[in-house]
Design brief:
With 115 residues, the protein is an alpha+beta fold. The chain contains four helices and six strands, in the order αββββαββαα. The protein has a six-stranded antiparallel sheet.
Length: 115
C-alpha cells in the first residue's frame, strides 16, 4: 500500500514535474499538462492514460486495482486504489501517465538518460 506522501514523492521525482491544486486536490503536471491528481475519494489516485483503450485494458485486467466512474466516461483517465499497489508499481504508473502528457522533447531527454 502507498500513501499520498508516496504519490507526491514519486510524481515530483519525474523531470520538470510540479504540484498544483486541481479540483481542490494535489495535482501533478509535466510542465503545464496534468498527468495525475489525488482524487476526492480518500486513497484514490487519478491518472491519465495514453488513450481510452489503455484505460479499458487496465480496468479489465485488474478491476480490484483500477476503476472508473461516470464522470470519467469517454476520457483517458483511470482511477487507482492506492491500497492495491506498491511503491514500484506507483512509480511505473506515474511514469506512464507522465509520458502520455509530457512534451515530446522532455520524454526524449528522459529516455536518453536511460530511464
Amino acid at each position: 500500500m502507498v500513501s499520498e506522501d508516496d504519490v507526491r514523492t514519486a510524481a515530483l521525482s519525474l523531470p520538470e514535474t510540479n504540484e498544483k491544486s486541481s479540483y481542490g486536490m494535489p495535482g501533478f503536471r509535466a510542465r503545464t499538462k496534468g498527468f495525475a491528481r489525488l482524487h476526492e475519494q480518500p486513497g484514490v489516485l487519478m491518472l491519465w492514460c495514453a488513450d481510452v483503450g489503455e484505460k479499458e485494458a487496465l480496468i479489465a485486467s485488474e478491476p480490484e486495482k483500477f476503476f472508473t466512474t461516470p464522470h470519467y466516461d469517454g476520457y483517458s483517465s483511470v482511477l487507482v486504489r492506492l491500497d492495491r499497489i506498491d511503491g514500484e508499481e506507483l512509480l511505473d504508473l506515474l511514469t506512464a501517465a507522465w509520458r502520455s502528457r509530457a512534451p515530446t522533447r522532455l520524454v526524449e531527454d528522459f529516455d536518453a538518460d536511460g530511464r
